[in-house]
Amino acid sequence: MSDNDIVNTIVREQGVVALSSPPMASFGGLITWIMPAVMLLIGFFIYSSYVRRNRKAPEQLSDADKAVIDRFRNQIDRELDEPSAPDKAGTDARE
Question: pTM above 0.85?
Answer without folding.
Answer: no
